[in-house]
Amino acid sequence: MSTLHTVNKSAYERNALKSCLDHALPGDAILLIEDGVLAARKGGSIAPALTAAKASCKIYALGPDLAARGIVAGQVLEGIETVDYAGFVDLAAGASRVCAWL
Amino acid sequence: MRFAIQINEGPYTHQASDTAYQFTKAALEKGHEIFRVFFYHDGVNNGTRYTVPPQDDRNLQKLWSELAEKYKLDLVVCIAAAQRRGILDANEAKRQGKDGDNIAPGFRISGLGQLIEAGIQADRLIVFGD
Amino acid sequence: MSDEQAKKKFFYLNRKAPYGTIYALESLEVVLIGAAFEQDVSLAFVDDGVFQLMDNQDAAGTGMKGFSKIYRALGDYEVRKLYVEKESLETRGLSIEDLMPITYEDENEDYAEKPSIILVGKSELAKIIADQDVVMSF
């Protein structure tokens, strides 16, 4: 029944992540991809919003996109799980629908 | 599981086509089926064989064409979007009175109905865009 | 397509303003083609997507093709559910009166004209998304 939401925009430039968080239901999964992963770094002003969302949604970040942007393992917010493309496929297959917040 | 992929952006300016390619490849390697990859908006620009990126960079068109050949993928370029952006196959070039075509191997040009059909036939539609 | 196949719920998520980019126009083109497939279609206008439905649009001065009239014709294509998010309107200083009137004819009530625009709050829209089969984002 759950939805996989994908966010590919930087939360510091656009409101895609905010809009996604506003529309995600408890039990949904949120996957940060491309510039969306910038929100996953510790210490950013968006971190509290993501931490709050973790209470009801599972949050993932695409590892290759983190690595490409110089965000290394210890810098990712606690509780955000890193997945590879195969993990992305598993998340999409495991949800009932995929909603992209472009 | 049967996936359909929609790509809204061209290569290089946005990462959308790269991410979609990596997703599609990973899904196929896991044994999933890709019902169709549909290229829309500027995404149709993935389907020209005239791109010549630097040798040390990836060639997205070639990557898609090779993946299509290996897995018998259906890569569909939207005709309305393609006409706006100058992507032509031999038939379209003739029909529009243009002096050549540029569609890449493994891609075909067809209507938007193919996107809707993909949404109907696939278990999941995944959109990659800007 | 065979009749036995159940209808799917198609949801078009529009979050971008018209004219600055082509997404609004080309999304509409998908909706029009998709209408022929007789699926259960709804459109959502969220964030800057609400500007797609502004009344009094006149693109003539830009040299671009105006397409706002097409939204008014959606009823003729059996596209009758246009969800507009209340919070997105409010954030932008808009109200439903700023949007163009869009209606459809209800064949079950002697073709009475009914509004296609449905104002919803974000929590309501979240539940609507959770009820869809296919989400097309533009």
Structure description:
The complex is a heterotrimer of chains A (102), B (130) and C (138). Chain A is of the alpha/beta class and 102 residues long. Chain A has a single domain, classed as DsrEFH-like (Hypothetical Protein Ychn, Chain: A). Chain A is 30% helix and 22% strand. In chain A, strands 4-3-2-1-5 form a five-stranded parallel sheet. In chain A, helix 1 (16-23) links the parallel strand 1 (3-7) and strand 2. Chain A starts with a strand and ends with a strand. The relative contact order of chain A is 0.26. With 130 residues, chain B is of the alpha/beta class. Chain B has one domain: 3-Layer(aba) Sandwich (Hypothetical Protein Ychn, Chain: A). In chain B, strands 4-3-2-1-5 form a five-stranded parallel sheet, with helices on both faces. Chain B is globular and about 40 Å long. Chain C is an alpha/beta fold. Chain C has a single domain (9-137), classed as DsrEFH-like (Hypothetical Protein Ychn, Chain: A, 3-Layer(aba) Sandwich), CATH 3.40.1260.10. Chain C has helices at residues 23-35, 68-72, 86-91, 122-129, and strands at 9-14, 40-45, 82-85, 103-106, 112-115, 117-120, 134-137. In chain C, the strands form two sheets. In chain C, strands 6-3-2-1-7 form a five-stranded parallel sheet. In chain C, strands 4-5 form a two-stranded antiparallel ribbon. The radius of gyration of chain C is 15 Å and the shape is globular. The chains are: A alpha/beta (102), B alpha/beta (130), C alpha/beta (138). Chains in contact: A-B, A-C, B-C. Chain A binds chain B through residues 6, 8, 33-35, 62, 64, 84-86, 88-90, 92-93, 95, 97-98, 100, 102, and chain B through 1, 3, 8, 15-16, 19, 22-23, 25-27, 29-30, 32, 123-130.
Quick structural gist:
With 102 residues, chain A is α/β, with parallel strands linked by helices. Helices cover 30% and strands 22% of the residues of chain A. Chain A starts with a strand and ends with a strand.
